[in-house]
Amino acid sequence: xxxxxxxxxxxxxxxxxxxxxxxxxxxxxxxxxxxxxxxxxxxxxxxxxxxxxxxxxxxxxxxxxxxxxxxxxxxxxxxxxxxxxxxxxxxxxxxxxxxxxxxxxxxxxxxxxxxxxxxxxxxxxxxxxxxxxxxxxxxxxxxxxxxxxxxxxxxxxxxxxxxxxxxxxxxxxxxxxxxxxxxxxxxxx
Length: 189
Hints:
The protein is 63% helix and 0% strand. The protein is mainly alpha-helical. It has one domain (43-177).
């Protein structure tokens, strides 16, 4: 039994005919359909920016949490850092945005108005929630220090996120308004 011209043994003797609807199959253009590599999680970036933001809040927190309260503060610092590290793997774009704004917040420690406001709000919220009040000692117990640290950190992280989004918006606006051709336009000419 002979094969007719245009047939092939590999495809069961069916004729291989060119069909324009299937000219861009992945087998024909592998570079076009290749999966993009996942972005590297910004764990190191998060860690460096997190540590850069610790000095002033840690100093003020240690002053308020002296003694056993330091355990609560240290636990809060560790929990916030670990939450950020885990977010690096799930939301790398968001962590990069927060880290960019975190650089600005870290420089604000030279004139620490955001840190003082966030600390006052965090301590106030923690004291309100736990019904803690001791005007005589002005020292936080471990549970109050833990909550105050978490609230203060979340407020500063939110500020960093807003500043990071403003920075991204400015970057995209400048790129959008710039007259330079985009990379895909370079290949058309």
